[in-house]
Design brief:
The protein has 10 helices and 9 strands. It is an alpha/beta fold. α1 runs parallel beside α2, α3 packs parallel to α4 and α4 runs parallel beside α5. The strands form 2 sheets. Strands 3-2-1-4-6-7-9 form a 7-stranded parallel β-sheet, sandwiched between helices. The N and C termini lie far apart (about 60 Å). The structure holds NADP nicotinamide-adenine-dinucleotide phosphate. The site of NADP nicotinamide-adenine-dinucleotide phosphate has 29 residues, from α1, α4 and α6.
Length: about 280
């Protein structure tokens, strides 16, 4: 059986990817930082008929000891051979940059960037020894262009893409592929789970609250079914000749297309007009 480790499997894309891959016959190690949150995955697996293909392990991507334990358990479950890892775990924090506490800036980078690197480092010896492996990173259209009120999230996804594109050079010679999946807006828990910062007394407060409202409206109007992303991740893992970049959602394809082609000032004007930001100039 082909084997895969997925991070952040308690909800959203991670949960759906576990179920999708299990239904396609993969042996899936579904990892999550808090096993008390496994209920929704267990319920989805029970109705999928593929629960026998899944093991659940604890793995917090920001905790070195948890990564070491999670990788050891994964390799035991998989009989020492792992075909792929899906780096899906991710967090966000919204607000004007000046209002976001330093601890939050670090939490986002620790999860979306350092966490991906740490888990990859723990798995590379196995992938190298096998002379095979796929490292799939769930990035975002946020890696294509800056977004208002989203600076640290964009920074984390830009960082992880630069790292991934560079890592591909190192590891290709060992038969290891590094692949990005870059979703546009999808309706998952991330929007509610992410803290937003617009403290009273902040000069940005009115602007930030407007940006949050317009952002929510954008997701409500344009957000799509996250199952599309789970299927894309599974397709990328299974493809004979996968592309390095894999945008998902019409808006992610558009953002991908204009990246580097449209001057930044035009892009900013377009986004400001789309969100109506001129109405809340401070
Ligand atoms: N939704 C979108 O529109 C969208 C678009 C582009 C990219 N993405 C990316 O897609 C990925 C999945 O997000 P989602 O939308 O499915 O949101 P989600 O439902 O909130 O899922 C995020 C998952 O990451 C887990 N997680 C957070 N910190 C972790 C840590 N330190 N260690 C291990 N797991 C951790 C969460 O676990 P807990 O349950 O314990 O919190 C949760 O399972 C993220 O990388 C996100 O940046 C999302």
């Amino acid at each position: 059986m082909r084997t895969v480790l997925v991070t952040g499997s308690s909800s959203g894309f991670g949960l759906l990817t576990v179920v999708e891959l299990a239904k396609r016959g993969w042996r899936v190690v579904a990892s999550m930082r808090n096993l008390d949150r496994r209920g929704p995955l267990d319920a989805a697996l029970a109705s999928s008929g593929a629960a026998q293909n899944v093991d659940v392990v604890q793995l917090d991507v920001t905790d070195a000891a948890s990564i070491a334990r999670g990788v050891e358990e994964t390799l035991t479950i998989c009989g020492g051979f792992l075909d792929a890892v899906v780096h899906n775990a991710g967090v966000a924090a919204g607000g004007a940059f000046e209002d976001i506490p330093d601890a939050e800036l670090r939490r986002v980078m620790e999860t979306n960037f350092f966490g991906v690197m740490a888990l990859t480092k723990a798995l590379l010896p196995t992938f190298r020894k096998q002379r095979a492996g796929r490292i799939v990173v769930v990035s975002s259209e946020a890696a294509f262009a800056g977004m208002p009120g989203n600076s640290i999230y964009c920074a984390s996804k830009w960082a992880v893409e630069g790292w991934a594109e560079s890592l591909a050079y190192d590891v290709e010679q060992f038969g290891i592929k590094v692949l990005l999946v870059e979703p546009g807006p999808y309706v998952t828990d991330i929007w509610q789970a992410s803290p937003r910062f617009a403290p009273s007394g902040s000069v940005y407060r009115r602007w930030s609250e407007f940006v949050f409202r317009q952002g929510d409206l954008h997701v409500a109007q344009k957000g799509r079914d996250p199952q599309e992303v789970a299927e894309k991740i599974a397709n990328v893992i299974e493809a004979a000749r996968p592309s390095f970049r894999n945008p998902v959602h019409r808006l992610a394809h558009m953002a991908h297309f204009v990246r580097g082609k449209m001057p930044s000032a035009w892009l900013r004007k377009f986004v400001e007009t789309y969100l109506g930001l001129s109405r809340v100039r401070l």
